[in-house]
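Bumping with the actual sequence this time:
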Amino acid sequence: MLSTEEKTQAVVAALEDVKALDISVIDTSKLSPLFDRMVVASAQSTRQTKALASSVVVKLKELGATVYSTEGEDSGEWVLVDLGEVIVHIMQPAVRAYYNLEELWGVQPKLRANSGK
């Protein structure tokens, strides 16, 4: 069974594999009883948003983690992957700017990657 930190690292790696932009990790353990980490990443197209979500799902399943659900693949503007204690939001830049989850949660995220390299 993966720890929260191992799941988070695997999510970030899966996002980096498909060139996600502006990946941030927010520690929500003291803010919500529902999950301990929120990972937010940007994608440049609906195709990339879906590919990023798929990469996260495949990688985490390979590691034995449970993927509880994915939402939003139909539109591809914002896809949520629920891994239990780790929640992943993959968003188009305009959607991400509009909802500004980092500010909504009132935290400064730890940036893991700033570019698609």
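The tokens above came from a reply further down the thread. The helical segments are 4-17, 46-62, 93-99, 101-104.
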